[in-house]
Amino acid sequence: MYIDYMISKRMLEIAYKNGKVYRYFDVEPEVWDDYRDLVKSGGSSGVYVNFNVKPHFECKEVE
Q: Where are the domains of the chain?
């Protein structure tokens, strides 16, 4: 999983291991900050995304 955040667009882009890429919109910078802190401390990216991103933000698959 690869995750990038575009602060000027408030957009989170996630590339999953299966090759699919999704963009999540109107993501607050605090969500990105919390994610980075979690990863730095050894937490799971997948668990964070499943509980803190997917249920809360509109997304579109990048074709």
A: 2-62
User: Rounded to an integer, what distance in angstroms lies between the CA atom of residue 30 and that of residue 19?
Assistant: 27
Give the per-residue pLDDT at 11.
Answer: 98
Sheet holding 11-15, edge to edge: 2-6, 11-15, 21-24, 59-62
pLDDT (tens digit, 9 = 90+) per residue, 8-40? 999 999 999 999 999 999 999 999 999 999 999
Closest CA to 59 of 20, 17, 12: 12
pTM of the model: 0.91
Helix (H) or strand (E) holding 46: helix 45-52
